[in-house]
Design a protein that fits this description.
The chain has 345 residues and is of the alpha/beta class. The strands form three sheets. Strands 1, 2, 3, 4, 8, 9, 10, 11 and 13 form a nine-stranded mixed sheet that branches. Helix 7 crosses helix 9 and helix 8 crosses helix 9. The longest helix has 23 residues.
Length: 345
């Protein structure tokens, strides 16, 4: 019996050692995160794989929240090296990273993106104000001084100037940075200006905050997953549907879909770059410094991403729809990336 136990124990040690060795021998960069940053990161990964001695990084579209969760789970090659995000890492996420030993992170802002409300080119161009969008998609609205379930069923119910078409909006789930930014830049921004919400906040701040940030779950808003390409495809099958997605998808699918004018501004490259288009946000990636030198090529990948040929005004990422940072900001972010400056929140 003792001999058998010893043999089993020895086998267990061998299997464990083999698994650990496999984890430590990963020879490619693993990147997770935002579906919006995904096409940019993929383009850099492909160029990096062609132009260097390193293997092409594996890029996964998991959503910003999902990617950061994976990134923050721990140190070791079973965990991702880089997380893409279409919003800045939250303090709560940073704290989870720290708790799990991910204590040395470099944040790099890569540029800007616009959040587009779009529809099929087979439909008339859409024009909205952010107030109209808020009133169409808020889970609850204030009626006669109290919060009630949103009664609007058509866009005309929201505003008599809009068409009598059923409200059906395809958009990202709560794990998406696009969803977070949409809530912040449209729902929250408009809600805060409403007198009835200001009155409600005086008596019930929690209810007021929920009214500003909660999106309908009665079928008017349909979560389409993390794949923005799926939203683009569905818009072509129903010309009355509105989709919410990043500008890069509009830029790459301009023959099929069109962007709605919001608050009088179209979602164009120029309007997003200048700040005229209100529904725009910064994009980021995060690097786990503990993996530098363990997984080959991380600093070289970061260098490729932050090169002028990639993220510059005439770079290949502009062709993919990335809105570049201003010259001085690009230099500052490049310097930060090169030094692997530690993030502090």
């Amino acid at each position: 019996m003792i001999g058998k136990t010893a043999v089993l124990a020895a086998l267990a040690i061998i299997v464990t050692a083999g698994t650990a060795a496999a984890q430590q021998s990963r020879d490619h960069i693993r990147i997770v995160g935002s579906s919006t940053v995904y096409p940019f990161s993929t383009a850099v990964a492909e160029q990096f794989g062609k132009a260097t001695k390193f293997k092409t990084p594996v890029v996964e579209s998991t959503g910003s929240g999902g990617g950061i969760k994976l990134f923050c789970a721990g140190v070791g090659t079973e965990h991702p090296d880089i997380a893409n995000s279409s919003r800045r890492m939250k303090k709560s996420e940073f704290d989870i990273c720290t708790k799990n030993g991910v204590t040395d992170i470099t944040e790099v802002q890569i540029g800007f993106d616009g959040i587009v409300l779009g529809n099929s080119r087979n439909a008339p161009p859409a024009t909205f104000t952010r107030l109209q969008v808020y009133r169409a998609l808020a889970r609850q609205v204030v009626v006669n001084g109290r919060l009630v379930a949103n009664p609007a069923r058509t866009w005309k119910d929201v505003d008599p100037a809009l068409p009598a078409i059923k409200i059906e909006v395809l958009g990202p789930p709560p794990t998406s940075g696009t969803r977070d930014a949409f809530v912040e830049l449209v729902m929250d921004a408009v809600c805060e200006t409403q007198p009835e919400i200001a009155l409600l906040r005086k008596t019930d701040d929690k209810a007021a905050r929920s009214a500003c940030q909660s999106i309908r779950e009665d079928g008017a808003y349909v979560e389409a997953g993390e794949n923005d390409n799926l939203i683009v495809q569905k818009l072509n099958t129903n010309k009355d549907t509105i989709g919410i997605f990043g500008y890069s998808y509009l830029d790459q699918n301009g023959d099929k879909i069109q962007g709605a004018t919001v608050d009088g501004q179209a979602p164009t490259f120029e309007n997003i770059a200048s700040g005229k288009y209100a529904v725009s946000r910064p994009l980021f990636f995060y690097v786990k410094k503990a993996h530098v030198g363990v997984v080959p090529g991380i600093t070289d990948y970061v260098s490729e991403f932050t090169s002028e040929k990639a993220w510059g005004k005439e770079g290949y990422l502009s062709d993919k729809g990335l809105i570049p940072l201003h010259d001085a900001d690009r230099k500052a972010e490049r310097d930060k990336a090169k030094a692997m400056t530690k993030l502090a929140l």
